[in-house]
């Protein structure tokens, strides 16, 4: 995107990476273009909005991560501003200044590189705003010479005892309180559709980067004949997985994909140790079995044991410390398998999800109830992995078994505060799932990471940083 561009974004939680080594804040605005009060400022001293819809996740390697749960943002809020500022120097001194929005599966949905920053000490880099029942993102790039205090005042923040600063007007640009002129939306993000049956090249662990969207849905096998080169997986550039409350979701890496037919042994080298998601889809009506293989080449954990026609599902699988995952597959017919980072798991929200087969969910909000409607005839088994206080992303905590029943069922499972992995370990048949009674997250614990502080005195001190 270039300055002024806008585009629709999916109404899902987005992670926004602000690069350039600047401080980051978010302002939540009503239709009037102003905050409702001090609580609508999210910054390092108050990193979680009371709604839980906007959170600062932390900083790593000069990149600050901000999460916006668009479905959790209150109806009164029309716009969310992403603000960058400098404590010394000016915005033009920030190298590689940019804002990039990612879906939780790692897909880049928009990126704005700031190329014309000047002497401003604070800048609205981008904004998310409601449009036509959804959300759009706009590249703003509007700066203030008098820093955060001037910016905040223009959006309704009462910054007391701050003397005026000459040249305090915003840098050239649109009148504040009004949105920039409407722009033609940028083209929607698209992922090229690789041939799912091309022979994959040997897997090599790349640098950790945001996860790319999965391969397309199941396709018929290619005609018999020589196989071409492996499809290229395009991955947006970016820093590693952010630190902070969500770090327990483990390392992020490009997906590994392989396709074949009938029985096989799959080997993936160079994966980060810890839990990953294995996605399997088979076109056939015979028996499907999937096992991990031990270092002695013996069957380990049984992941799939199904007679379901056209099986499909996602399984939670631990990668050993040596980073080598070996799987034994029994199948009748063509199949497609992917190894995905845990961050690619389905995010639970109050919007109903409908699918079939086993699956892996992530719950990142506050306490909630998980409503399940299972319409299969065989076992329904659900395990919870509570990650709060679990600091080793290479391992899983002990699970809690919350459902183990046979046949069609309606279940409601109480969930603790996220982050939690919900593993629907067995579910041969269709199901629906959604959250009920979802509460705001209480914020990160006071363990040396970001702590939820709402003292506006601290906010005003932060806003009044000297700009002489």
Topology record:
Elements: E1 6-9, E2 13-19, E3 23-29, E4 41-42, E5 54-60, E6 63-69, E7 79-85, E8 98-103, E9 108-113, E10 122-131, E11 134-144, H1 147-154, E12 256-261, E13 264-268, E14 274-282, E15 288-293, E16 299-306, E17 312-319, E18 325-330, E19 334-341, E20 346-347, E21 353-356, E22 359-363, E23 368-374, E24 379-386, E25 400-406, E26 409-415, E27 420-427, E28 430-436, H2 456-463
Parallel strand pairs: 20-22
Antiparallel strand pairs: 1-11, 2-6, 2-8, 3-4, 3-7, 5-6, 7-10, 8-9, 10-11, 12-19, 13-18, 14-17, 14-19, 15-16, 15-18, 21-28, 22-27, 23-26, 23-28, 24-25, 24-27
Task: Please give a structural write-up.
The chain is mainly β and 468 residues long. The protein has two helices and 28 strands. It folds into two domains: 191 residues, sav2460 like domains (Lipoxygenase-1), CATH 2.60.60.30; 192 residues, Jelly Rolls (Sandwich), CATH 2.60.120.380. Strands 1-11-10-7-3-4 form a six-stranded antiparallel beta sheet. A five-stranded antiparallel beta sheet has the order 5-6-2-8-9, with no helix packed on it. The chain is elongated, with a radius of gyration of 24 Å.
């Amino acid at each position: 995107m270039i300055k002024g561009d806008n585009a629709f974004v999916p109404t899902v939680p987005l992670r926004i990476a602000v690069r350039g080594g600047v401080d980051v804040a978010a302002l939540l605005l009503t239709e009037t273009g102003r905050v409702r009060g001090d609580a609508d400022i999210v910054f390092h001293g108050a990193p979680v909005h009371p709604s839980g819809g906007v959170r600062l996740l932390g900083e790593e390697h000069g990149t600050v991560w901000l999460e916006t749960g668009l479905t959790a943002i209150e109806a009164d809020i029309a716009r969310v501003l992403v603000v960058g500022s400098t404590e010394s120097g000016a915005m033009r001194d920030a190298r590689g200044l940019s804002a990039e929005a990612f879906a939780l599966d790692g897909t880049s949905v928009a990126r704005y590189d700031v190329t014309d920053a000047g002497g401003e000490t604070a800048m609205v880099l981008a904004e998310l705003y409601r449009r036509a029942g959804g959300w759009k993102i706009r590249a703003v790039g509007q700066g203030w010479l008098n820093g955060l205090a001037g910016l905040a005042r223009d959006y309704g923040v009462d910054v007391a005892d701050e003397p005026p600063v000459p040249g305090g007007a915003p840098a050239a640009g649109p009148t504040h309180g009004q949105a920039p002129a409407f722009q033609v939306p940028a083209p929607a993000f698209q992922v090229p559709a690789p041939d799912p049956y091309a022979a994959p090249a040997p897997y090599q662990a790349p640098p950790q980067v945001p996860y790319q969207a999965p391969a397309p849905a199941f396709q018929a096998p290619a005609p018999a004949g020589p196989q071409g080169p492996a499809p290229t997986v395009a991955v947006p550039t970016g820093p590693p997985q952010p630190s902070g409350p969500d770090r327990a979701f483990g390392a992020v890496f490009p997906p590994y994909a392989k396709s074949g037919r009938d029985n096989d042994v799959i080997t993936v080298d160079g994966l980060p140790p810890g839990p990953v998601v294995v996605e399997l889809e088979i076109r056939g009506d015979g028996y499907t079995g999937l096992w991990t293989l031990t270092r002695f080449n013996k069957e380990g954990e049984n992941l799939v044991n199904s007679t379901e026609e056209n099986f499909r599902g996602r399984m939670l699988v631990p990668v050993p410390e040596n980073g080598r995952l070996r799987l034994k597959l029994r199948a009748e017919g063509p199949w497609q398998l992917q190894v995905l980072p845990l961050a690619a798991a389905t995010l639970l929200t109050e919007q109903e999800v409908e699918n079939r087969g086993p699956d892996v969910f992530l719950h990142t909000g506050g306490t909630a109830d998980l409503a399940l409607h299972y319409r299969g005839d065989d076992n329904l088994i659900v395990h919870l992995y509570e990650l709060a206080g679990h600091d080793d992303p290479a391992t899983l905590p002990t699970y809690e078994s919350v459902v183990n029943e046979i046949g069609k069922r309606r279940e409601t499972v109480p969930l603790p505060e996220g982050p939690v992995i919900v593993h629907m370990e067995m579910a041969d048949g269709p199901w629906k799932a959604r959250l009920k009674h979802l509460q705001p997250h209480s914020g990160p614990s006071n363990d040396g990471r970001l702590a939820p502080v709402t003292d506006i005195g601290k906010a005003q001190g932060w806003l009044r940083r000297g700009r002489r």
